[in-house]
UniProtKB/TrEMBL annotation:
Substrate binds at residues 45, 102-104, 144, 161-162, 239-240. Its EC number is 1.13.99.1. One of its GO terms (biological process) is L-ascorbic acid biosynthetic process. It comes from the Eukaryota. It is found in: Cytoplasm. Its cofactor is Fe cation. Belongs to the myo-inositol oxygenase family. Binds 2 iron ions per subunit. This is Inositol oxygenase. One of its GO terms (cellular component) is cytoplasm.
Amino acid sequence: MTILIEQPQLGFEEEEKKIPVDEKELGLDGGFVVPQTNSFGQTFRDYDAGGERQPGVENFYRINHISQTYDFVKRMREEYAKLNRVEMSIWECCELLNNVVDESDPDLDEPQIEHLLQTAEAIRKDYPNEDWLHLTGLIHDLGKVLLLPSFGELPQWAVVGDTFPVGCAFDESIVHHKYFKENPDYNNPAFNTKYGVYSEGCGLNNVMMSWGHDDYMYLVAKENKTTLPSAALFIIRYHSFYALHRSEAYKHLMNEEDIENLKWLQIFNKYDLYSKSKVRIDVEKVKPYYLSLIEKYFPAKLKW
Ligand SMILES: O[C@H]1[C@H](O)[C@@H](O)[C@H](O)[C@@H](O)[C@H]1O
Ligand SMILES: [Fe+2]
Ligand SMILES: [Fe+2]
């Protein structure tokens, strides 16, 4: 029952693009200061904080956990693999996110374009030479356009929030785990064991993740033949997989390449999570720089 999705084979050129992960090797001082609290005065990712956003966020996860089943994900992957909805550039997509607000996020109620630029600019300060990582910051959440009418207007529960594997047991570390009890897969013996339909070390590429903006943007980038390195595609695809990159669950499904790429994801996560603030970036000022990166790593128009 395992669904195999093709991963670009690492040829000679791609091999050379592999990037050193050691922060010391990169000569960085990690200037970014992790703030103690979010813009609402609470600790980041506190899902039981009881603040103004809590009831909405909890309700979001209730519906998300009940509805993300193995069959649902399979259907979504097939449907969106067609990439037959829209043709546009990466920057046009960034602008579309001007009007998107994420209901799953306890730390941010700003339009998403702010979050993209805040993430990218924070990375750029600490890792000035890793231009691929700046661009990864800019585009990692573009898949949230799935909320908009021309992309199928999917409900929030099918677009945002933390992701997790389907087809095997839901790990206890997943936010608001209790709501999985009402997911039909929860009582299905094919899907509710440690390995479920997978096997030890099978590689995350062979694992079906709950459907949302991560997997969609990965698909868009890959199918439109981005020249970004494999670590960038991994970051885009798994940045919402907190059970893995924060709680170290599901490690038994990883292969060697996943282990390498996870190091970059963990660096990235610091900027994705803690750069969320009310301090706005001047879009027009930074736009030329990001346009030059887009031109370097993507075709002018992409299929979405
Ligand atoms: O609420 C947030 C948001 O949807 C992010 O884009 C996602 O990456 C996180 O995992 C999630 O917790
Ligand atoms: Fe995200
Ligand atoms: Fe993000």
